[in-house]
Design a protein that fits this description.
By secondary structure, the chain is an all-alpha fold. It has two domains: about 50 residues, no CATH class; about 80 residues, no CATH class. α2 runs antiparallel to α3 and α5 crosses α6.
Length: about 140
């Protein structure tokens, strides 16, 4: 249920504080509700979403076959921030979580971009995202 509530709320706003307020409506206990909203305000003020920050690329894979496909360069923190900000335009704050998740399992930049683009429901938006980030 929480995942569904998060997806719905993320479609309604691109603002972290507003996202917490929307999700807070599902918390009946007044004390827990207040704590949840306070935590959201602190995270929004600190510029973090649940402690999610651009992460370093995964460690090299030992399987030689997969290493041949791995690009010589990996996404830099600046690239990751750019990708997140662009993806947020299309799918909302959940983009940060998806970027982090895809970074953990990316093999090539092309596959990374395509995996993220797959979460964009509109085909034109998906193509625009891929065009900006070097997808063919």
């Amino acid at each position: 249920m929480a995942a569904i509530a998060l997806r719905r709320a993320a479609r309604q706003t691109h603002d972290l504080t507003a996202l917490y307020e929307l999700l807070g409506k599902h918390i009946d206990n007044p004390r827990e509700h207040a704590e949840f909203l306070a935590k959201g305000r602190r995270r929004a003020a600190g510029g973090t979403a649940g402690g999610l920050r651009p992460t370093a690329p995964p460690k090299p894979v030992t399987d030689d076959r997969r290493n041949r496909d791995r690009p010589a360069t990996s996404p830099t923190p600046a690239n990751i921030a750019s990708i997140e900000s662009n993806l947020i335009r299309y799918i909302g704050p959940i983009a940060r979580i998806l970027v982090k998740r895809e970074l953990e399992k990316y093999e090539t930049l092309d596959k990374f971009y395509r995996a993220l683009a797959a979460h964009i429901p509109n085909e034109r938006d998906r193509e625009a995202f891929l065009k900006v980030h070097g997808g063919d």
